[in-house]
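User: I'm curious whether this sequence folds into something compact or stays loose and floppy. Could you predict its structure so I can see for myself?
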Amino acid sequence: MAKLNTLAQNNPVSQQDNPILQGNFGPVDVEQVLQRLNVVGEVPADLNGSLLRMGPNPVNPEPNHHWFQGEGMLHGIAFQNGQASSYRNNWVRTEALEQKLGLSAAPVSETRLMIQGSGNVNVVHHGGRVLALSEIGLPYEMGVETNTLRMFDYEGRLASNMTAHPKIDGETGEMLFFGYDLMPPFLKFHTVNAAGELVRSVDIELPRAVMMHDFGVTASRVVFMDLPVVGDFGVMEQGFSMPFSWDNHHQSRLGILDRDATSDTVHWIDIDPCYVFHPLNTYDDGNKIVMDVVKYSKMFTTPDDDSYEPGSKLVRWVIDPELNTVTETVISHVDQEFPRINPKVECHRHTFGYALETGGPHGFKGLLKYNFEAGTSSRYDVGESKAAGEPVFVPYGAGEDEGYIVSVVYCADSNLSEVHILDAHQFGDQPLAIVELGVRVPFGFHGNFVPAE
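Assistant: Here's the prediction. I'll summarize afterward.
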């Protein structure tokens, strides 16, 4: 299987040869509900709630179909009183899905956008709502039982795109997000209070459209990443579905903005060319900012590029706005993605981090844990015939690594999926429980745990 960044290119490929339509990247075509799942080991009695997992599940994909596209499908595994009580999955009920499958679309927003995503990237819980998030478009409000309630626009206050990667402050409960666009204004920044009300929006000037997938947030500031994957409608004329390409002439830079800013006062700092989908976390260190990110040399280019370097690495950026510098230190050269932390320390100083190792015959391998103070790392090995998914942290105690790591794991031998539950405090040990789902959950992107009410 090609490395993850190879799957993110605009490459000409027939449907039968497309790697993201094969194996566990391929879609499933059934919605179902399964009760009382079989468990090997013991589900912790205090793990009560639902693991929600989002990913693309395309219907009738076209040639050159891209992994980042396809109808969104939400998977939910419910835990209650030491039991894995159910699994269920549903497509997000979009208008596009209604045209393809005849499944009735959920109510749409009056502030409909020109381009509306399918909610296929992430799912978050904030302000009493569960939101399915796209790369571009408005979110969809979902039920914990994976049903679609409506297209959501914060009661008419959001009339632009919402990122798939909002940041929820682990101490205040405030949620911050941005939205980029392919037409001016290219970037908007938003703040939602802990009660779930959109209270602030700021237009940010950019020289052109860029694919800004994620950003960093500290207790006092935000960090925008203006990187050289730029809007390019020309590639769509060549038959590709993602309107982005790498531009060697676009200056990479990081933009610093106060969290409470009401106007565009971004301080930009130039950096060397690179691409980042996902930061692990970002925090204040005095006037400096520490930002741990999974970094690629390039993205949306091709392997015959002379400077193309496949794979990723985990690096630490120390940003000094006073000196206008960004210092980089490599933490790990292991090819990895989907970094996560304990949500209680989101936007604040962290000691531990978790990630998914990429590569291997199925596209993904095991899980990684980092201790940044000790400078050490450990690995959870799922085995040669299995491939883990994003590690979701569910706190059970006051300590930063006192929690459960929950990951959806694909089993190639059976072509089925299971959920592994680990004790993060004893990361390298055997799992506390393995939940046998009895179905295949395709490789997706992101998920989160919604505690039981």
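Summary: DSSP finds three helices and 33 strands in the chain. The first helix runs from residue 4 to 7.
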